[in-house]
Amino acid sequence: RGLGLWMKARQANDPAQWARIDELLVGYPAKYPTQDVLVPWTMQMVFDSRQARGDQAGARKMIDTMLRDWPDNKRTGASSGSYYNALLNLRKGLTGEESRAILSEMADFLKISNSLGSAPFKSLRNESRHWLDLGDYDEAERVLTQLVTTHGQNPDQAVQMQTYVLPDLGRALLFNGKVADAKAILNPLVMDPGASPSKATVLNWARCIAGWLSGAELQIKEIPGAGGTEEEWDKLITKLDQISKAGDKWTSCEWYEVKLMVIYSYFTWSKTDSRKLDSAKKQLAQMDSFFDDPTYAAVDQYCEEAEGETRQRLGAGVLKSRYTHMARLLR
Fold it and tell me: What's the distance, CA 130 to chain centroid?
């Protein structure tokens, strides 16, 4: 009877029929707990009913029960995929806190489903990306470490590991304060012969070695790096210069961020090679001669004109105040 209603509801997509399925079948698992074929099936039908009627909370409650009681059942797998895809579609077109709330639910859902049995690469990868997008580096590190442990030796995933997973693990370790560990992950991705790292990987690797400035105004902190060999320092400056030359010189917030990294890298390098202090001062002098403004107001102007994450991270005086801090360090 329930199956017949379910088939009719799928064909007609009638809310009343979907609601009738929920009423008819929701009590079946408690009434017939030993029916190991029919119980997950009826749960899936109730789940489908709630999804079809837009009852997201009810659908989540049912899928959580399925994951708890029937984690390896194919009905649970199908419903999990359907629920996750529904969240993906729900997030489309959303921005700000609404988008973030759905993203957080997606990450939380995958955390639960991935903890049951052997999680596939794609599902773990999606979870890790969600935590990174949320800025939760502890959770990201956990999942990325699991990815490396469970899938790191799979030749089918070698390119994904080298190009995405290891750089992301290095990033998570870096912003969790595990700078030396992050350097150990990222160093081969940059220093090995034939390595072709992305811009983001190079920037995080540079932070591992040179450290970086964090915060703004009176709360600026100098985060120490792990240091490097002469060869690593040379490559760091070369790579940062390459990125700088490829950017929108003098008119891009991101370009000013990289330029500051060059100056700060020379400054921290000078602690082991005093000759590099002059290089840091020359780099800053070049900026000063262009602006002729000790407040670096133009830097803030370009960061306020930037879009999305760059503006949120570096606008509102953040990058500008780091430049003034750098000037104090060098004068």
Answer: 6
Q: 55: which residues sit within 8 A by CB, 6+ positions away?
A: none
pLDDT (tens digit, 9 = 90+) per residue, 115-169?
Answer: 887 889 999 999 999 999 999 999 999 999 999 999 999 999 999 999 999 999 9
Mapped onto helix, strand or coil, the DSSP state of residue 221 is strand
Q: How confident is the model at residue 4 (pLDDT cuts 50, 70, 90)?
A: confident
- Cβ count within 10 A of residue 271: 11
**For residue 235, what are its two tokens?**
């490559």
CA 326/CA 300 separation, integer angstroms: 15
Report the C-alpha gap between 173 and 207 in whole angstroms. Answer: 12
CA-based nearest residue to 90, from 46, 56, 64: 56
Helix segments in 53-95, DSSP class H: 56-69, 74-91
* Helix locations, the chain, DSSP H: 2-12, 15-25, 28-31, 38-52, 56-69, 74-91, 96-114, 121-134, 137-151, 158-160, 166-175, 179-191, 199-210, 230-246, 253-269, 276-291, 297-305, 308-314, 318-330
> What 8-state DSSP symbol labels residue 155?
G
